Amino acid sequence: MTETYKLFLERWRTIHDLEKVQELLDWDQQVVMPRKGAEQRGNQQAALAGLVHDRITDPELGELMDSLAAKGTPNEDGAADLREAARERERTMKIPRRLVKERARTIAMAQAAWAQAKAADDFESFQPYLEKVLSLTREMAQAIGTPNPYDALLDEFEPGMTESALKTLFGDLKGRLLPLLDKIKGATKPPGEAPVKRCFSRDRQEVFCRVIAKDMGYDFEAGRLDVSVHPFTAGTFRDVRITTRYDENFLNTALFGVMHEAGHALYEQGLDPERYRNPSGPSSSLGIHESQSRFWENLIGRSRAFWVYYYPKLRQAFPDVLDDVSLDAFYGAINVCRPSLIRVEADEVTYNLHIIMRFELESALLAGTLEARDLPEAWNTKSQELLGIKAGSNARGVLQDVHWSAGYIGYFPTYALGNLYGAQFMETLRQDIPDLDSRLERGELLPVKEWLNNRIHVHGRRYPAPELCRRVTGKELGAVSSIAYLTRKFGEIYGF
Amino acid sequence: MTETYKLFLERWRTIHDLEKVQELLDWDQQVVMPRKGAEQRGNQQAALAGLVHDRITDPELGELMDSLAAKGTPNEDGAADLREAARERERTMKIPRRLVKERARTIAMAQAAWAQAKAADDFESFQPYLEKVLSLTREMAQAIGTPNPYDALLDEFEPGMTESALKTLFGDLKGRLLPLLDKIKGATKPPGEAPVKRCFSRDRQEVFCRVIAKDMGYDFEAGRLDVSVHPFTAGTFRDVRITTRYDENFLNTALFGVMHEAGHALYEQGLDPERYRNPSGPSSSLGIHESQSRFWENLIGRSRAFWVYYYPKLRQAFPDVLDDVSLDAFYGAINVCRPSLIRVEADEVTYNLHIIMRFELESALLAGTLEARDLPEAWNTKSQELLGIKAGSNARGVLQDVHWSAGYIGYFPTYALGNLYGAQFMETLRQDIPDLDSRLERGELLPVKEWLNNRIHVHGRRYPAPELCRRVTGKELGAVSSIAYLTRKFGEIYGF
């Protein structure tokens, strides 16, 4: 390892450490911080954001990188490190330090305001915060200066993806999903959701969720499970924390929520121990990240094979509650497909429509053709148009997701990309482990984890997401695999 | 406000914010961090320590301060700001950045090792970590370069105090405490501790502790109560968190522990909202801080007047447990004076002996006349000498306190100073509120809180601790008030 490369890595590792502190402060705010601490947290986040900006834009770092680029990096990973570092530095250089600090402070305050507004179903109290976040986010997109401002934001979450590519992809997806949804709606013997809407005690839910997460391979000594208003995963490597929320009258919320977050967490816990603090070591694009969470939540967690093993255990965990429900009835209940209000609880078919709806709304918000004050109405109109239903409250409508309060515009599409990546990964996994279903039926989850560890996690961002996708699946990303999977699965369940 | 002063404040407020992030990371490690996260936490703390060092030693900050010193500060608070900033900067300039980073990383690892060693009663596993912390702490004391290395460390916690002054003070204190202890030992009708050693359910203890903390004026919306291996308080202003631990067979542990920590927390919550991020705004010396915690724990919490109001409530909180115990028997039980092993659970008389013992040991550790490997034996010898008892295990002996793992040498004496400050403060309080006891008997705690808010908290470090003491009590700090208080109180309880 050359001295220059070593110095370059040292600097980036410190930047990584500081970014993880920012992430921890966010976890703390969402999980344990006292209500009145938001202003101080805003100051802290602003101070850290300024420091991280200083270190990424430091001219001395630039010189090290120029020298590496001229002399060449020691090996393939070194080249990936330089590529990723250059990407982040180039982007950061364009955003003024003042803006970075103001945005960090504003977001801390806006997230606190959002949590309260959601609890009180009071969009108006959140509106001024959202306006400020939007205005700073527009300013940031402008500073980055791509021809299309949405692309500037998207690039942070899914490098290389563009709004126009998303429009094409989502157009295709919508065009294939709506006919599928029509078939489902027309089914004569649809499964019923009643079994998962019985009474499931919160404490027993937590115990069961912990068992599943542990069986998936999630290391609780390198993580923890807490409650938050909006479920999420924070941290990396040996400190990866997941959160969920419990609904005593709806089993799916926590159960599939924990599998989702544990899927994210396995990715972070599965990074290369030698490289996780290097520029190319951390997890890849958010689309790839969501492919991991949605993979466990749906492709595994909502599969029949998985429940062959776990359904008897679930029955034991909730004595008497499910005695009269057969495995098939339960399998149907967790796969009921029906337009619903809450994205994170949506079935696999309608889920993507929730994403397309948010994508269209946030694109308009960023362009300024939609203003924050008009968002609740626009939300309901769009919901009616795409899902055929309207939220009775803003708490279950436009306020349901934390993302916009955190300035995450360009993030939602990655969930749908995750579904598409995931379906393609599953095709390869089935080639590599032909007896996957019988293994799942025996409760063997670790082969799945290890396959994901080896094929995806350990690489970090060694390969850009499109290349990683080609390497693992042999194909470009598209909607075909996902639609084929959904058609087959829901055809069986709904009998068409 | 001049432009220079404004720029100076801005820079120090950012330093303050970053120091609070360091403190939060420590809280997180001790309360919620997954076991395997210690190494990453060490990296994070090292990165932050380096950045804070950079900002305090920044030549531009030095220029601002020189200019302020030359032109004069806007007002009295400005002068205090400059004084405190100069103190911190001068100290920091002497400690190499490398050392600051290495020490921060080592401490994060050592604290994790300590918690495990304590749980496993395994001093040997902790010894190498302690050795490294000690070696770095000696190096730091040397770098600061006072003639006496212990003074260099003490100065961080109790500015202006010296080892030699402590020796005199503690000599005086020991000389007065030992005869008092002899009288107590000779009492013919000592109270019994049995009532507080009954079975008190953990959950009910927590509920009761929360009520007391709230009644003291602790704002739970600007704080929280958690469990940790060693109880402590972290944070400031509107985010001040306290921790405790519960022993179902000993009421005192959590009850007086929470009053102690809530006393610290009231100080932090009571700082001047306009000044808490300025150099002279935060809480004063640790001796003053401990005066607040020990004040609530003992001078209020172990007073008869307090329990006239709260004892009936305690009985209600634990139905049937204390039915046969009179108020006086309970008051005796919480004031049983007897050499015991655990410092934080010690009575008011023997408590100071625990401190003197630690003071003598850490002074020898720093000087290098005592090595880490010989510490368990030295601990027991000293314990036998001063308290007349020896710990049966290192977990309840040398491993009981977190401080040395955190590199806190020169910290323990501030607890005894807190007792002395507190006794003097109480004398003034009784002059200002002559009917204090009847107010306490009616459950009125807020007048006490408000008096402390106005006389101590709001000033922050506007005055150096010795000056604050003179201003509030009209006297220099000494052992007289404390000894008078202890003699009167324990004379009544033990009948001499």
Any overview of this molecule?
The structure is a homodimer of 496-residue chains. In chain A, helix 1 (3-31) crosses helix 3 (59-71) and helix 6 (123-144) packs across helix 7 (149-157). Chain A has helices at 3-31, 38-57, 59-71, 76-94, 97-120, 123-144, 149-157, 163-185, 202-216, 251-269, 286-300, 304-317, 327-333, 348-367, 375-387, 413-432, 436-441, 446-455, 465-473, 480-494; strands at 223-227, 233-236, 239-244. With 496 residues, the first copy, chain A, is mainly alpha-helical. In chain A, a hairpin with a 2-residue loop joins strand 2 (233-236) and strand 3 (239-244). Helix content of chain A is 65%, strand content 3%. A three-stranded mixed β-sheet of chain A has the order 1-3-2. The longest helix of chain A is centred in the N-terminal third of the chain and has 29 residues, at 3-31. Chain A is built from 20 helices and three strands.
List keywords for this structure.
496 residues; three-stranded mixed β-sheet; globular; 65% helix; homodimer; mainly alpha; 20 helices
Low-confidence segments of chain A, given as residue ranges, are none
Assign an overall shape of chain A: globular
Q: Give helix % range of chain A.
A: 55-70%
DSSP strand count of chain A: 3
How is this structure best summarized?
Two copies of one chain form a homodimer. The first copy, chain A, has 496 residues and is mainly alpha-helical. The first copy, chain A, contains 20 helices and three strands.
